[in-house]
Amino acid sequence: MMDQLAVSPLMLGLIGGMFLLLMVFAGLILNLQYGPRARLRRRMEAVTGVSLTGGRKGAAQGKAQPGGGRKKAIQTKLKELEQQRKQQKAVSLKQRLIQAGLQVSPRGFVLIGLAFGAFSAVVYYLMGYNPIGIPLVLVAMGLGFPRLVLKKLIKRRQKKFTANFADAIDVIVRGIRSGLPVGECMSIIGREFDDPVGPEFQLLIEGQKLGMTLSDVLDRALTRMPTNEVKFFAIVLVIQQQTGGNLADTLSNLSNVLRERKKLKDKIKSLSSEAKASAMIIGSLPIVMTLLLFLVKREYITTLFTDPVGQIMILIGLGWMGTGVLIMNQMVNFEA
C-alpha cells in the first residue's frame, strides 16, 4: 500500500485538483445561496410560509369555533395540532434546514453532500483499499454523514432555544403587568435575545406586520421550532385570544412549568450519566485496542487492513459495532 502511494505523484496531483474543484464548486453554491435575492426570498418564506414557486404551504386549518368554554377550546386546539403532526409526519429536508438555522437550499445541501461523498470515495480508492467498499463509503459520507450533522445541529439549536425560552416568557409577563401590549413585549425579545430565541420572536412580529393572524404565525413557529415548549406557548396564546382571561398569570404558570421540566431533564441526565459513560467506554474499546496494537506490533494488525478478507471483516465489524452503539444510545436516552 505504501509503495502504491509513493510512486504516484500524478495521483497526488489528481487529489489536489479534485479538492480545488470541489472548493470552487462549493463556493459557487454558497454564493448563490447567500446572494441578496436568495436572502430576501428565504426571509419571506420563513415569515409567511409562501413559496415563490409553489404558493402557500402549511396554512392553518382555521380557528376553533367560538363558545363552548376554555376547556373545549383547548381540546380543539390540541386536536388541530395532533392532526397537523400526523399530516407532517415526514419532515422535508427544507424544513430540517430551517430548523437547523442553515441558510442553504435543499439542492445545495444535497450537492455539497454528494461532492463530499465523491471526494471521500476517491480518497478511499487511492489509499489502496478494497474497491468493494467504495459504494458504502459513497453512501455513508455523501448521504448519511451530512444528515447526521444536520440532526445534531437541529438538536443543539432546539436545546439552546429551550434553555432561554422560559426567560423570554418572563419578559412577556413583566411587560404585560407593566401595561405593554404583547406585540411590544415580543419585539423586545426579538431585539434583546440572542439566536435562536430572538430571531424566532422577530419572525412572529414580522408575520403579524404582514397581515397574518396569530394562529398562522404560531403554526409557522411550530414548523421552525417543533418543541413541546413552543406548542404549549402557542396553545396558551391562541386560547387566550379566543376565550380571554389573565394572560400574565397564565404565562407565569407556563414559565414555572417549563422550568420544572428543565429541572426534571437535568435530573434524568445526572441519573443516566453513569450508564452513558459505560456505553462510551464499551463503544470506544475496539478502536482503542486497534490503536494500541498498531503502536505495539504494527505488522500484526496491518494485515487486517491490507488483506481483502480483513477489509471485509472490518466492514462487517463496523456495521455490528454501529448497531450496538445505536442500541446502547436508545437504552440510556430518556425523554422528559
Automatic annotation (TrEMBL):
Residues 169-293 form the Type II secretion system protein GspF domain. InterPro entries: T2SS_GspF_dom, T2SS_GspF_sf. It is found in: Cell membrane. It is a multi-pass membrane protein. Its main location: membrane. It comes from the Bacteria. GO terms for cellular component: plasma membrane. Residues 247-274 form a coiled coil. The chain crosses the membrane at residues 12-34, 108-126, 132-150, 277-296, 308-328. Keywords: Cell membrane, Coiled coil, Membrane, Transmembrane, Transmembrane helix. This is Tight adherence protein B. It comes from Roseospirillum parvum.
